[in-house]
Design goal:
This protein is α+β, with helices and mostly antiparallel strands. It is built from six helices and seven strands, in the order H-E-E-H-E-E-E-H-H-H-H-E-E.
């Protein structure tokens, strides 16, 4: 079954990715049709040509009707945007894959706040992993309730539309990026 099995989804994909191409071209000072892309081993897309655009780091996240694009001239960037959709009653069961500190943080909250907090942790994990070109398994293991011990201040929550949460991570310049 095609992942983009409806005309509306295909149109949204084309508009979003076309917009990314235009924005990256404007940012890099090149023509949109000259941009060439590739995928890193974990699947993260990157610009590989022309040379003046190849050093520009970017990351895209989509959820519902919204898209979030992060662009950085010198350091890898990761962004994540998620619709809040997991009911509070299901949060503790789903969080069993999170590190102990994250689970404790979620348990400490009143049930009414758990769903938003769970999604907030999730987008921070995803943004962190995307900035490093890592997969979701690495994201799940990363404790984020108390910040990032190895990268203080690198992950930030972003303002998001009502019913959504978002985060951005700018990887440390000296970090080893696969």
């Amino acid at each position: 079954m095609n992942r983009l099995d409806t005309t509306a989804l295909r149109d949204a994909y084309a508009i979003t990715h076309g917009s990314v191409r235009v924005l990256l071209a404007q940012y890099s000072g090149v023509h949109p049709r000259d941009l060439r892309f590739s995928r890193r081993p974990q699947g993260k897309p990157e610009t590989v040509a022309p040379a003046r655009a190849a050093g520009v780091h970017w990351n895209l996240s989509t959820s519902g009707d919204w898209a979030l694009l992060g662009i950085s001239p010198h350091r890898p960037v990761g962004v994540d945007l998620e619709r809040i959709r997991v009911p509070a009653a299901a949060v503790l069961g789903l969080a069993r894959y999170f590190p102990r500190t994250d689970r404790q943080f979620l348990r400490s909250l009143p049930e009414a706040r758990r769903s938003r907090a769970y999604h907030g942790l999730w987008v921070r994990k995803e943004a962190w992993a995307k900035a490093r070109g890592l997969g979701v398994v690495h994201a799940l293991r990363q404790p984020v309730a108390d910040g990032f011990a190895d990268d203080p201040g690198a992950v930030h929550d972003l303002a998001a539309p009502t019913g959504y949460v978002a985060a951005v991570c700018l990887a440390a310049p000296e970090a080893d990026h696969p």
